[in-house]
Automatic annotation (TrEMBL):
<dbReference type="GO" id="GO:0004315">
    <property type="term" value="F:3-oxoacyl-[acyl-carrier-protein] synthase activity"/>
</dbReference>
<dbReference type="InterPro" id="IPR020841">
    <property type="entry name" value="PKS_Beta-ketoAc_synthase_dom"/>
</dbReference>
<dbReference type="GO" id="GO:0005829">
    <property type="term" value="C:cytosol"/>
</dbReference>
<dbReference type="Pfam" id="PF00109">
    <property type="entry name" value="ketoacyl-synt"/>
</dbReference>
<feature type="domain" description="Ketosynthase family 3 (KS3)">
    <location>
        <begin position="1"/>
        <end position="395"/>
    </location>
</feature>
<keyword id="KW-0808">Transferase</keyword>
<dbReference type="InterPro" id="IPR000794">
    <property type="entry name" value="Beta-ketoacyl_synthase"/>
</dbReference>
<dbReference type="GO" id="GO:0006633">
    <property type="term" value="P:fatty acid biosynthetic process"/>
</dbReference>
<dbReference type="InterPro" id="IPR018201">
    <property type="entry name" value="Ketoacyl_synth_AS"/>
</dbReference>
<dbReference type="InterPro" id="IPR016039">
    <property type="entry name" value="Thiolase-like"/>
</dbReference>
<dbReference type="Pfam" id="PF02801">
    <property type="entry name" value="Ketoacyl-synt_C"/>
</dbReference>
<protein>
    <submittedName>
        <fullName>3-oxoacyl-ACP synthase</fullName>
    </submittedName>
</protein>
<comment type="similarity">
    <text>Belongs to the thiolase-like superfamily. Beta-ketoacyl-ACP synthases family.</text>
</comment>
<dbReference type="InterPro" id="IPR014030">
    <property type="entry name" value="Ketoacyl_synth_N"/>
</dbReference>
<comment type="pathway">
    <text>Lipid metabolism; fatty acid biosynthesis.</text>
</comment>
<dbReference type="InterPro" id="IPR014031">
    <property type="entry name" value="Ketoacyl_synth_C"/>
</dbReference>
Length: 398
């Protein structure tokens, strides 16, 4: 079943609109990954992909019990699709529109602030509501703001959360539970994840450097990306880009390390390509998971090569946005959507150019002119616990 995807709303360290993000992607501009002003618990500094505070809507635009930075990022992305979304709601009715959003941190940052306030004052601030931290909080916030009455829920499968949300949105449409789904993801920076990844020795001291022999870990970022998904045959919106294939797997190899041979990753990619009905030669671009950790990059390069996809132009856009965790799948879906719609290039792979001889070489895109039309894009999202999701996005007329 082909699912039509609207022009997305998006915000991340690379920009606060699709135009800004795409300009940064084509140029390979990674200056959005900046050195933080504060320190981690161990006193060390770190780079992060933070969105400038003055680029976001005012918190006062949100309901009082939903005023978190996570929802603030979400509102920024939502405003970019608000007009077409209200049109779709008017066409099918609020009860026939669903919301499925992926996240891994939700409003935890607000919980951290509330605990700090409690330590100082002996009570939680009046502005804090424990529901801010629930994984369903972003989805409920979006439904509240837009008056949506259909199924509303969140998905939290670590770094594959918002990629998995596309599969859930497709199921809601295929089953007839909804005629339109707002789908995507959002995650904001918080000390819990920053210090957690530091404790795992997974954070890079500088900007991340995917697939390089000098790679040393991730740069964490924050982002939101949202789409309106409808059944292609219903004709409710322009079908410039469609979701044509999707597959999830779980190899359950280790809590935090990927299977060294990428068995689950291979199965996810193979399944997504099969669903989309395309051969290796049909694929135009791969948005790699590409975290810049030693084990993940080695595994993914092996998995891509196992499927004979090593010559397909590819890049990891986490070098531009940071690893946006639960929002990564949606953020990278935005990159694929823009590549298919704009037809003027692909996201540039930003690294130091130093190939690791211990991993399989890939065709990491450096901005060269495209030899053919971008017709199909594969996007990978791999998470802790061996949770893997691969999605195929295609031009709507195909």
């Amino acid at each position: 079943m082909k699912i039509s995807l609207s022009k997305p709303g998006a915000v991340c360290a690379a920009g606060v609109s699709c135009d800004d993000i795409w300009s940064a992607a084509l140029a390979g501009d990674n200056t959005g990954l900046s050195l933080a002003n504060d320190k981690l618990n161990d006193g060390s500094g770190y780079y992060h992909g933070k969105v400038a505070d003055n680029k976001l809507p005012a918190l006062s635009e949100l309901p009082v019990t939903m005023r978190t930075r996570n929802n603030q990022l979400l509102l920024c992305a939502l405003k970019q699709i608000e007009v077409p979304l209200r049109t779709v709601i008017g066409q099918v009715g609020a009860h026939r529109v669903a919301v499925v959003l992926g996240t891994s941190t939700s409003g935890i940052a607000s919980g951290e602030e509330a605990l700090a306030h409690h330590e100082q004052h002996g009570e939680l601030p009046d502005t804090f509501n424990y529901k801010m931290q629930e994984m369903v909080a972003p989805a409920e916030c979006l439904a509240e703001v837009m008056g949506i009455e259909g199924p509303t829920y969140g998905i939290s499968t670590a770094c594959s959360s918002s990629a998995r949300a596309f599969m859930s949105a497709r199921s809601l449409l295929a089953s007839g539970f909804a005629d339109a789904v707002v789908v995507g993801g959002v995650d904001s920076l918080c000390k819990l994840t920053l210090n957690g990844f530091k404790a795992l020795e997974s954070m890079a001291a500088e900007r991340c450097n995917p697939f390089s022999i000098n790679r040393s870990g991730i740069t964490i970022g924050e982002a939101a990306g949202v789409f309106i998904a409808t059944r292609k045959e219903d004709g409710l919106q322009d079908d410039l880009v469609c979701l044509t294939g999707a597959q999830s797997t779980s190899d359950a190899h280790h809590m935090s390390a990927p299977h060294p041979e990428g068995r689950g990753a291979v199965a996810a990619m193979r399944g997504a390509l099969y669903e989309a009905g395309i051969e290796t030669a049909d694929l135009s671009y791969i948005n790699l998971h590409g975290t810049a950790t030693p084990l993940n990059d080695k595994m993914e390069a092996h998995a891509v090569t196992e499927l004979g996809l090593q010559d397909i132009p590819a890049s990891s856009t986490k070098a531009l946005t940071g690893h946006t965790l639960g929002a990564a799948g949606a953020t990278e879906a935005v990159m694929c959507w823009l590549a298919l719609e704009r037809q003027n290039g692909l996201p540039k792979h930003v690294w130091d150019g130093q190939q690791d001889p211990d991993i399989k070489p890939l065709n990491l895109y450096q901005g060269e002119p495209l030899a053919k039309t971008v017709n199909h894009c594969l996007s990978n999202s791999f998470a802790f616990g061996g949770n893997n999701v691969s999605l195929v996005f295609s031009k709507g007329e195909l």
